[in-house]
Design brief:
The complex is a heterodimer of chains A (297) and B (355). With 297 residues, chain A is mainly alpha-helical. Chain A contains twelve helices and four strands. The chains are: A mainly alpha (297), B mainly alpha (355).
Chain lengths: 297, 355
């Protein structure tokens, strides 16, 4: 493998990793606060692509406006899910909340199947993504170039939100200790709602960008990206926002490099991520950035 | 006067005899459609009660029974498919070595089922070791991934599984004798297990892991054993399933299968073997009834188009509503015991006597 191919593959993995990072942050935010694996997150991601798809295809809006509307709708869906399905179960045993999450996820998928059908649809890529760029003589597709750039810009906004604004401080406080935060006069329910809105918006952006990269969309497309993003969150240390981002890049790069170096293993790229998850659970369950926390009794 | 244990055993034996009599009758007089539903129901009983052992009794959330069923199903298919049929089915790529050279005679069907179950149990142990030592959620995500990966492998390991085409023409060994027997003995065993000291330890883990550990229960070993046992029965259920419908393909063991089992155990009541048994049978019938709903209907001058897939939407709404408003399910943690049945019997007799 020569240098240019390697660089291309690296950029490819980097852009895939940035998408995983966007998704993984949604998982890690919710998990950090509620201790819940939000199975429906991957389906909000799927909805993000469909919202953008319909805005562009039916209402003929420009792509950037479609994405903005789609992302807002995703945030709304995320808040609805929290309000309707998760809030009533906040004090219930963890397994009940998990089952509900699976139920919500399955509901969105099957609603998608009966409304838009199982047949994959072609996502119209904006012109910007179709351009071809040459960096130091290496041919880079527009998608591979712009997706990580957009993602990183969004991640920077996110870090500002989480680490520098009042809402972000409240979110982190709730994830440390919900009861004390409540005593400090923070409206915990509202903060949790904002967290879901933020996570779902990121999933929506991730979905729209994902569809630019892989333009075949179908109602079940969220499952594997979602699961890999959760794996990324575990690899990075669950509950840790920076960890989720690092985990996303690790998973994305590893997946593309496996395919690049062992082309005959392409069919098994998903199985490989699973192996990575098992290894991390065995060796370092707290992840790259996570601190080993003993559960309080 | 008999001791309680002997009395219960006697009554269980009696029930078994009655069931066998029923099977004998059904094989002769019942129509094929109903027999098919009963077969499916019994397979659901095996899979659902085993699934409940992990999710309900031990309180660990697994999402992988479809993977374990797939392992059992493919193992039994590969062992039982006649060699000549194998050459016919694997026209894309020939079947890989040990399996293309032999196949079990019909008399070894039981052995094939048990081997399928053992392989599934082995897979369960391999996943359980890294995940069960950690907090419960890791099991959920790892088993979910496992179930999905098994489907991916079944699609890609063409020399072993024939890919997406699947394996056709598996001899139909499964009949009511097999399914009812497996269902009966699975429920019998799991019920006794739940009432044993091992079962009480599992329940203690469900209620409070820290307290259970303080009582001297080895958390990891108990969880792992329950998980492996559950994997075994899921594997057997998968094996029974593929020899019932005589074909196996990756589409058969997708996450929908796990979801069906989840609906069964949640609807019945997490942690109750009796409840899962009842709801598994109900579910098999409900699925057939709802199949009718999905078909197009003509009422008077109006024609309603059928909406295929509507069932799953309804099921997922039911699941969420159950969890929010009626978490204990239909039966809660109630277990049927012979004592209860006898009490009921006596009370009714007494009521009749006084009136």
């Amino acid at each position: 493998m020569d240098w240019t191919t390697l660089f291309q593959q690296f950029m490819n993995g980097f852009s895939l990793g940035s998408l995983y990072a966007l998704l993984a942050i949604g998982y890690t935010l919710v998990y950090g606060i509620l201790g819940l694996i939000n199975f429906a997150h991957s389906d909000v991601f799927m909805l993000g692509t469909y919202f953008a798809f319909f805005m562009m295809g039916i209402f003929l809006l420009p792509w950037w406006l479609s994405v903005v509307i789609g992302v807002s709708l995703c945030a709304l869906v995320g808040m609805t899910i929290e309000r309707v399905a998760y809030r009533p179960l906040r004090s219930a045993p963890r397994i009940s909340a998990l089952i509900t999450a699976v139920g919500v996820s399955f509901f969105i998928q099957n609603l998608g199947l009966i409304t838009v059908g199982a047949r994959p649809k072609g996502f119209p890529r904006p012109e910007l993504m179709k351009n071809v760029y040459f960096i130091a003589g290496v041919r880079i597709q527009g998608v591979t170039f712009w997706v990580p750039l957009f993602s990183i810009a969004i991640l920077l906004v996110l870090f500002y939100l989480v680490y520098r604004t009042k809402v972000g401080i409240a979110m982190r406080a709730v994830s440390k200790d919900m009861e004390t935060t409540r005593l400090m006069g923070v409206n915990v329910d509202q903060v949790i709602l904002y967290t879901f809105a933020l996570g779902s918006a990121l999933a929506g952006i991730g979905g729209a960008l994902w569809a630019c990269k892989y333009p075949q969309i179908n109602p079940l497309m969220g499952t594997f990206p979602g699961w890999k993003a959760f794996t990324a969150a575990v690899v990075g240390g669950i509950g840790n926002v920076i960890g989720a981002m690092i985990g996303g890049f690790i998973i994305g790069l590893a997946e593309i490099m496996i395919v690049a170096f062992f082309p005959n293993l392409t069919g098994y790229r998903d199985a490989f991520v699973f192996a990575l998850l098992i290894i991390f659970l065995l060796v370092k369950p707290s992840g790259v950035m996570g601190e080993a926390l003993k559960e309080k009794v | 006067m008999l001791s309680f244990e002997k009395r219960d055993l006697l009554l269980t034996g009696l029930l078994f005899g009655l069931l066998m009599l029923g099977v004998w009758w059904a094989q002769i007089y019942l129509n094929a459609y109903l027999v098919r539903i009963f077969n499916t129901a019994c397979i659901y009983v095996v899979a659902a009660t085993a699934y409940n052992l992990v999710n309900g009794v031990t309180g660990q959330f697994s999402l992988g029974p479809n993977g374990f069923m797939a392992i059992g199903g493919y193992t039994v298919a590969l062992l039982m498919l006649p060699v000549a049929q194998k050459q016919e089915v694997y026209f894309l790529q020939p079947l890989m070595w040990p399996f293309n050279a032999f196949s079990f005679p019909p008399s070894l069907f039981l052995l094939a089922l048990v081997l399928g179950g053992l392989l599934a149990a082995l897979a369960a142990i391999l996943i359980g070791i890294p995940t069960l030592r950690l907090r419960g959620d890791y099991l959920a995500i790892a088993t979910f991934g496992f179930g999905e990966i098994i489907v991916v492998l079944a699609n890609n390991l063409i020399p072993l599984t024939n890919g997406a085409l699947g394996i056709k023409g598996i001899p139909e060994y499964t009949n009511l004798w097999w399914t009812v027997n497996w269902a009966f003995w699975t429920v019998f065993m799991l019920k006794n297990l739940v009432n044993s000291s091992f079962g009480r330890a599992l329940k203690a883990i469900r209620e409070d892991e820290v307290a259970a550990e303080a009582m001297g229960i080895n958390l990891f070993r108990h969880k792992l054993l329950a998980f492996a046992l559950s994997g075994f029965f899921a594997g057997v259920a998968g094996g029974l399933f593929v020899t019932l419908i005589s074909t196996v393909s990756p589409a058969l063991f997708t996450f929908t299968m796990t979801f069906n089992l989840l609906i069964i155990i949640v609807l019945g009541g997490l942690g109750s073997i009796t409840a899962s048994t009842i709801t598994a049978v109900l579910f098999a019938f409900l699925q057939e009834i709802l199949r009718e709903v999905e078909a197009p209907h003509t009422i008077g001058p109006w024609t309603f188009p059928g909406i295929p897939g509507m069932r799953m939407v309804v099921f997922s709404i039911i699941l969420v509503i159950l969890m929010i408003f009626y978490r204990r399910g239909l039966f809660g943690r109630w277990e049927l015991s012979w004592q209860e049945v006898l009490d009921l019997w006596h009370r009714r007799k007494r009521a009749h006597g006084t009136s």
